[in-house]
Amino acid sequence: MKRSELFFGAMLVPIDFMMLLTAAAAAYYVRLSELVRGLRPVVFEVDLPFSQYMQLASIVSFVIIFVFAAQGLYAMRVTRKAFDEVTQIFSGISLGLMIIILGIFLRAELFQSRFILIIAYVFAFLFVSFGRAMIRELQHVLLQRGLGVHRVVLAGNGPFATELAALFTKNPDLGYVVVGELSNVEWSALQHIYDRHGLDEVIQTNPMLPDEDNLVLLDFSEQYKIDYKYVPNIFETHAINVRYRQIGTVPLLELSRTSLDGWGRIAKRVIDVVGASIGIVLLSPLLLLVAALIKRDSKGPVFYTQIRAGRTMMPFEIIKFRSMYADYCVGTKYGGKKAERKYNELKGKANERSGPLFKMRNDPRITKIGRIIRKLRIDELPQLFNVLRGEMSLIGPRPHLPEEIAQYAKVHRKLFAIKPGMTGMAQVAGNAGLTFEEEAKLDIAYIENWSLRLDGVLLIKTLLILISDKNAV
Questions:
Q1: SS3 for 465?
Q2: What is the mean pLDDT, run by run of 10 residues, along the chain of 473 residues?
Q3: Total domains present in the chain
Q4: In 77-173, where does DSSP find H-type helix?
Q5: Same domain, 168 and 45
C-alpha cells in the first residue's frame, strides 16, 4: 500500500465530516435568511438554537460516516470511479436522512422545519461530492507527476498483457505505470527491474503459466513485500462465488453460479414486483396513448409477443408494443412465410452485429410510430407485465431468442443463471453498438458480481441514457 493512498484514505474521513457539518450550518442559515423568512416564518429557532442544532448535526454526521465506511468509501485505492463514488454518497446521505426522520417520529419535539431537512440533505450531497472531487483531482495531479503511481511488471505473454499495457498507457489517471514486461519468468529479470525502477505490484497475465513460474513470482513478491495479482484460469473464474460447507467432518467448497441467491434473490423479487406495479400505474396514461397511436398508424395488434428463453432456458412470451408492420412480425399469425423470408433476407445482407444476434438501423419493416417508440424505448414498457409474472426482472441479462441460443458457445450458458431483465449492463454500456461477445461478457460480469447496489446504479444509468442513447435500433 502506497503512503499516498494511506494519506488520502485517512484524509477522506475528516473532509467528509467537515463537509457534512458545513452543509448543516449552511442549511440552518439559509432557513434563517430574510428571503426564506419572508416566505415562511421561523418557528424552531427558540426550541433549537444553533449550538444545539450543530450538536445534533454532529451526531448525524458520525452516523453517515459509519454508513460511508460500511459502503467501502474509505477503502484504500489508487483512484476511484466518480459515478460509483457519487452513488454511494447519495445512498449514505439518504440513509442518514431516514435516521433523522425516524428520530423526529419518535421525538416530535425535536424541531419542526421540514425545509431545513430538505436543504441540508441537498447541501450534504453537494458538499461531500465537491470535497471528494477536490481530493480526486489532487490525486490525479500527483499521479501525473509520478507521486503515488503503482509501478507494475506484467509477467506472461498474451492478450491480457497487451490489453493491460495499452490501458495503463492510455489512462494514466488509473495510477499504474508498466516498468517491465516478462515473457519468460526468471528471478534475475525480476531483480533487475526491481533494482532499476522499484516495484509495487506483479501482475501475472497468463492463466496457463506453469506452476514453477508462478512460484517464482509468489516467492519474489513475498520477499520484497510486493502486491501480487493474477488473471484466473477457467476453473478459478467459475469459483468467483464460493461457499463453505461442512458435512459431518468433511469440509467442502460449493461453487455458486451467482451471488444472487438466498435473501438477495428474495429482495430482488420484492423490488421487481413493487417497481413493476408502480411503473404500470404511473405509466398507464402513456401506455394507453401509445396503444391508440399504434392502432391508428397501421393494421394489426397493439402488442407483439415472441418466445424468449429465460432462467434455465425456460421459454416464455415476451410482450412488447408492436413496432413493425404486422405482416413482417415473425412468429405471429399475421406474419407467416413472408415475414420469415424478409427476416432471412435482411439478416443475410444488412446485419450490423457480429455473432448470432441480428440488428440493423433503418429497418424497412418498422412503422412510423414504431421508429419513435423504439428510439424512446417505449416499445419495451409492456415487459413490466413480464416482470410481474415472474418471467423477467427489472435488471438482468438480455432475453434470448431460441434461434440465437442454438449458436451460443458453452461459455454463454452462464447467461441463463438468472432471469433476463428489461435493462442491464449491455444496455447501459452501448446496447446495439456492442458486439455479441462484448454484450455477453458484460451480462456474465453482472451475474457474477450482482448486488442490490449494482442494480440501483444500472437503473440510474438507464434513466440517464434514455434521452441520449444514439445506439437505439
A1: helix
A2: 66 91 89 69 59 85 84 66 79 78 62 73 92 84 75 85 86 83 88 88 85 88 84 60 62 65 80 91 93 89 86 86 79 62 66 58 80 87 93 90 77 82 83 72 84 84 70 47
A3: 3
A4: 82-106, 114-144, 159-170
A5: no
